[in-house]
Amino acid sequence: MKIEVEVITKETIKPSSPTPHHLHHHQLSFLDQLAPHAYVPFLYFYEFNGSTNIHQISNLLKTSLSKVLTQYYPFAGRVRNNLFVHCQDQGIPFSEVKVKTHLLSDVITNPCLSELHKLLPFKLDEVTETALGVQLNVFECGGIAVGLCISHRIADGLSCFTFVNNWAAASNCGPGNKNSIVGPDFSAASIFPPRNMDGYLGFPITKIKTKMFVFDVSKVEALRSRYEQSIKVSKTQKRPSKVEALSAFLWDIFVLSRPRERAQTLYAVVYIMDLRSRFKPPLPQHTFGNYYRAAMATPTLPTGEKHHGSVRQVMEEIEKIDNNYMRKFQDGYQEHLDFMKKRTEKAAKGELVTLTFSSVCKFPVYDADFGWGRPTWVSMTAMRISNQIVFMDTRNGDGIESYFSLKKEDMDKFEHNKEFMALLRSPIGNVKENPLARL
């Protein structure tokens, strides 16, 4: 399915009030510096009943964006040298485009991630100093899609969703609006001070295939129960979460499908977790920046029948990251940086193969009401990071969307696995009422 767009207008949106001089230098934290040099892409789709005044919608989005940028001023700045953001109200690019070839329902019923990228303001493999870009996509049916590209160097997933929700709250200030604007907390650099990153190159971007799958939540719950019965979890005795169980299942398929290139190859599962809840007391959700940490486990490679050891080992690694660990991590940054350098070196040599899982399940993904209701669908499209799987709740909570970024040969192994395909949601319901029913 090809998507064709035509640019109508382009302009720069600046904060409605000048950023004070003492805030012109937004320092990146240590975790910001470690974040991928990539854009985090989001698409918010909205359907309308009746006629749509696109001019009014466009002005509302731009006015409220200008207003909320006074609080989120780093987005209107420019990222410099992986050290800081120069915040002198340079502004963000805002473009309005016409989608010429499809209705909104056509696009979200049968989404093609490579084509959805045309609804975004930037090419994902062309990262610049600009921290944020917005594109308003107008469909022939009157529906819209708001596309955003947000620099991962200054914001993680939760920070992105919180920003969009505050932007929506600024647009929808009527008496019936329950959402209020909560200003961001920019204390990340004081919690994780920036460090010398010489010698750290990060992970290279490789040619990958991206695809979305939707898992049936009841089938995932059955998988979770099966794993719970097959393992004995130490310490807390808690059940594996749906995401932990699904991650372990996908990890086993990934490892079993790969040839053993060399005997020295190490296979590791990496689970990305939000750190805000790991502090005592927990940090608030509006704490802005990159607050995530990777828990890595190297389960014994399956031989013969699949085993469930990976879910137990991942859970044990996650349990280790508590408040005491967080305090040690703040002081022992050099040990972590050395570990990351060695990890990237091994990966570059083919001595380490990882599969990374990241989840935004239970995040406030569908809270962005600009005054015309919740979005019909929110898509993260796909980041250009190889060997990564991202999970997100469906709109009604009846499924788990997953975004796979893999080499083609690895993707094919999943699509030809009968157990994997059996977990996917079956086409149900009326597509007109449920645009994602065919997924």
Automatic annotation (TrEMBL):
GO terms for molecular function: acyltransferase activity. It comes from the Eukaryota. Keywords: Acyltransferase, Transferase. The keyword Transcription does not apply. InterPro entries: CAT-like_dom_sf. The keyword Acyltransferase applies. PANTHER family: F21J9.9, VINORINE SYNTHASE-LIKE. Belongs to the plant acyltransferase family. This is HXXXD-type acyl-transferase family protein.
